[in-house]
Amino acid sequence: MYRPLDPPSRILLGPGPSDCHPKTLLAQAIPVIGHMDPAFVAIMNEVAELLREVYGTQNKLTLPMSATGSAGMETVTVNLIEPGDNVIVCVNGLFGERWVDVATRAGANVTVVEAPWGEAIDPADVEAAIKQGSFKAVCLVYAETSTGVRQPLEDIAKIAHDHGALFVTDCVTAIGGIPIEADKVGIDAAYAGTQKCLSAPPGLAPVTFNQRALDIIMNRKTKVQSWYLDLTMIAQYWGGTKRAYHHTAPISNVFGLHQALGLIHEEGLENVFLRHATLGKALQKGLEAMGLKLLVKNPEHRLPNLTTFLIPEGIDDATVRSQLLSQYGIEIGGGLGSLSGKIWRIGLMGHSCRARNVIMVLGALETILTELGYKCDKGASLAAAQEVLAEK
Ligand SMILES: Cc1ncc(COP(=O)(O)O)c(C=O)c1O
């Protein structure tokens, strides 16, 4: 049986994917050309250059891996880590937990440094752990999508380097939404995804490695355990003197990423970050004015592009999210892991990060919650959000 595709139209305000810019979708409809075509090679070079801009790096080895963000996590891990290496993985949410699993499968001896979900990792805890042994890398999630925590990076980067370890970060939710400044911060390797603040469809994982990390990869004692993610080969295709075939690049996704990064470049990185910061603040003020409690207590550790807040007592998670979807076409996220059923997550990422979406989601949420018996000051959330939007 064949049924023509007819997915509904949605406004994506969850933790990702976010709405794609129409120009990005159009770019993905450009007829495919060959992955060794000189015209495609020129486009690859431009994508790498635009990625360096959002990562804040000069790293030569900067490229999109042909798979989603989790493959980015696997890429940094399996290329930098050899079986038996000691690594520290910081865990204050689901993606830190995933990284422990990925590193363990790659044969690493993993030391976990933890913080409660909703709080940032304390650099003092990393320092205490790193003094206990000799570690090859410290792995840290910059923007923890399961909790909405923005992790300060500088202190932990310094601790890692002072002890001879690489500093490796997850930038999946960060990229294109908050500054990364990889070179300034001292990030040795990082990975990201295209489907959040870059506003391209899911399917690529931009990664970046500095010279120190690259030297470690090129001087491994053992082969990279994954053939598909082996950068010693992929780097040849993306930047080598001879463009050797490794696997067929996902041409259309690369076209889309080129356009998505081009839109960010045209708007200007500073403006893009300001848009996310302002609209995130407007949403958070609006939710608080509705009487809702933000999960992340320390305002400095709140992501602007992903807001997490507690589901009020007596209100059913699934009922509200399904009404948002069916009545307004708005998708927001529920909680993951131990926060399942306890929080909601609203993403304002990339093309989804627009003033009209802030107003719409606050209005829709207030209407639905009020109908379900939740008591709040009518219209207060919109007024609080508008106040932030009016600030110049
Ligand atoms: C912080 C973080 N890391 C890793 C991932 C995994 O990315 P993907 O789902 O694209 O494989 C995600 C996805 O939401 C994420 O938010």
Notes on the structure:
By secondary structure, the protein is α/β, with parallel strands linked by helices. It folds into two domains: 22-265, Aspartate Aminotransferase, domain 2, CATH 3.40.640; 269-390, Aspartate Aminotransferase, domain 1. It is 42% helix and 14% strand. The chain contains 14 helices and 14 strands. The chain has helices at 22-28, 38-55, 69-80, 94-105, 123-130, 154-162, 182-185, 211-218, 231-239, 251-267, 269-289, 317-328, 355-371, 380-390, and strands spanning 11-12, 61-65, 86-91, 109-114, 137-141, 143-144, 149-150, 166-170, 189-191, 205-209, 306-310, 330-331, 333-334, 343-347. The strands form four sheets. Strands 2-10-9-8-5-3-4 form a seven-stranded mixed beta sheet, with helices on both faces. Strand 13 and strand 14 form a beta hairpin. Helix 1 (22-28) packs antiparallel against helix 10 (251-267), helix 2 crosses helix 10 and helix 5 (123-130) runs parallel beside helix 6 (154-162). The longest helix has 21 residues, at 269-289. The chain is globular, with a radius of gyration of 21 Å. The termini are far apart. 48% of the residues are buried. The chain binds pyridoxal-5'-phosphate. Pyridoxal-5'-phosphate binds next to helix 3.
Summed up, what is this model?
The chain is of the alpha/beta class. It is 42% helix and 14% strand.
In which range does the helix fraction lie? 40-55%
Radius of gyration: 21 Å
Secondary-structure element order, N to C: EHHEHEHEHEEEHEHEEHHHHEHEEEHH
Number of domains: 2
CATH architecture of the largest domain: 3-Layer(aba) Sandwich
Helix tally equals 14
Instruction: Detail the poorly predicted runs.
Output: none
| Distinct ligand kinds | pyridoxal-5'-phosphate
Task: Return the CATH class of the largest domain.
Answer: Alpha Beta
